[in-house]
């Protein structure tokens, strides 16, 4: 099984969607070489993450810049070579500005692109695995939770151990590995286009989000409210931090510490009326540099947590 997975081909793409006269329209592409109709996607380049691939491939195939939304499944099929292929898909809302700024022209790979209804896309698509992904997206439409934002809960990267550091706990720096981790997660985090970065005031958290801040131009907001020192002293205020982010309904990265992260996930669930469960504990059990993307509805706040996905640094 492991050997087969190593031979597998991995790719990523999205159901790109927009509202036209109040109706959901999805983007399909007519490929030149294969004479088929499919969803925008492409293979992972060496060193890329799946979210990074999805954003890049959509830009290359359609000329449209997108931000990822909710994951809508994995298409699995066997290539003519006998190798398995796994394509990870997200939903991606496309703004009118992004449509106007599209650089697409017909080319040797994509002959045309077309915005169609879900029903028409179902008839157009050439492959059953694409239809299955489309139907998972349709279920989100039926539930009224296609328009989403994310709270990205990030555990700081690898830091110098307490026993190896003579200063205060809050001043512990990242190790060389931690610095590499912090840099490696930037393309994945950027795929969701965060609008805000909230970080514990501890050096190891501030340093973890520094590469993302440099990439996005967002000035991180430092707070003691989600620091480990405050948590250990019973003085943390996770509830106010999370409550504000949910009220704003804008995608944000929240960088904190291993012991604090379960409280952060719990407060997201409480603030959205979501039932507790093992899935929250799984999403909280993050290694250094790992993050969980908690997807919430921007238009239907009572729907609770839609789904959670977890990603790791490449180093």
Shape verdict: globular
**Can you say what the CATH homologous superfamily of the largest domain is?**
Phosphoglycerate mutase-like
Mean pLDDT: 95
Ends apart, CA distance between termini: 24 Å
Q: Structural class of the helix and strand makeup?
A: alpha/beta
Secondary structure tally, helices:
12
CATH fold call of the largest domain: Rossmann fold
Number of E-type strands? 13
CATH class of the largest domain, named: Alpha Beta
Number of spatially distinct domains:
2
Point out poorly predicted stretches: none
Largest sheet: 7 strands, mixed
The CATH architecture category of the largest domain equals: 3-Layer(aba) Sandwich
The residue fraction in helices comes out at 25-40%
The run of helices and strands is HEEEEHEEHEHHEHHEHEHHEHHEE
Percent range for β-strand residues:
25-35%
The radius of gyration computed from the alpha-carbon positions, rounded to a whole number of angstroms, is 20 Å
Describe this structure in words.
It is built from 12 helices and 13 strands. The longest helix is centred in the middle third of the chain and has 16 residues, at 128-143. By secondary structure, it is α/β, with parallel strands linked by helices. Strands 1, 2, 3, 4, 5, 6 and 7 form a 7-stranded mixed β-sheet that branches. Strands 10-9-11-8-12-13 form a 6-stranded mixed β-sheet, with helices on both faces. It has 2 domains: 2-143, Nucleoside Triphosphate Pyrophosphohydrolase, CATH 3.90.79.10; 148-311, Rossmann fold, CATH 3.40.50.1240. The radius of gyration is 20 Å and the shape is globular. It is 35% helix and 27% strand.
């Amino acid at each position: 099984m492991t050997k087969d997975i190593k031979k597998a081909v991995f790719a990523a793409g999205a159901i790109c969607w927009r509202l036209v006269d109040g109706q959901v329209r999805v983007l399909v592409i007519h490929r030149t070489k294969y004479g088929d109709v499919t969803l925008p996607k492409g293979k992972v380049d060496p060193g890329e993450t799946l979210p990074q691939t999805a954003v890049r491939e959509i830009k290359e195939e359609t000329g449209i810049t997108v931000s990822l939304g909710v994951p809508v499944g994995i298409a699995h099929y066997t290539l003519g070579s006998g190798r398995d292929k796994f394509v990870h898909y997200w939903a991606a809302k496309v703004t009118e500005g992004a449509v106007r700024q599209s650089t697409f022209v017909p080319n040797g790979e994509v002959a045309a692109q077309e915005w169609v209804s879900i029903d028409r896309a179902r008839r157009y698509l050439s492959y059953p695995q694409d239809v299955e992904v489309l139907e998972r997206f349709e279920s989100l439409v039926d539930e009224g939770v296609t328009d989403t934002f994310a709270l990205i809960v990030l555990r700081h990267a690898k830091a110098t151990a307490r026993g190896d550091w003579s200063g205060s706990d809050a001043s512990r720096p990242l190790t060389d590995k931690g610095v590499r981790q912090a840099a490696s997660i930037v393309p994945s985090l950027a795929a969701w286009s965060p609008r805000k970065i909230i970080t514990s005031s501890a050096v190891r958290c501030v340093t973890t989000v520094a590469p993302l801040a440099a990439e996005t131009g967002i000035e991180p907001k430092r707070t003691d409210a989600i620091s480990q020192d405050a948590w250990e002293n019973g003085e943390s205020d996770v509830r106010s931090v999370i409550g504000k982010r949910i009220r704003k309904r804008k995608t944000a990265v929240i960088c904190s510490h291993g012991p604090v992260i379960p409280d952060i996930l719990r407060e997201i669930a409480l603030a959205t009326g979501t039932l507790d469960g093992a899935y929250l504990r799984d999403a909280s059990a993050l290694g250094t540099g790992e993050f969980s993307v908690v997807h919430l509805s921007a238009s239907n706040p009572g729907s609770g947590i839609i789904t959670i996905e977890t990603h790791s640094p490449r180093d």
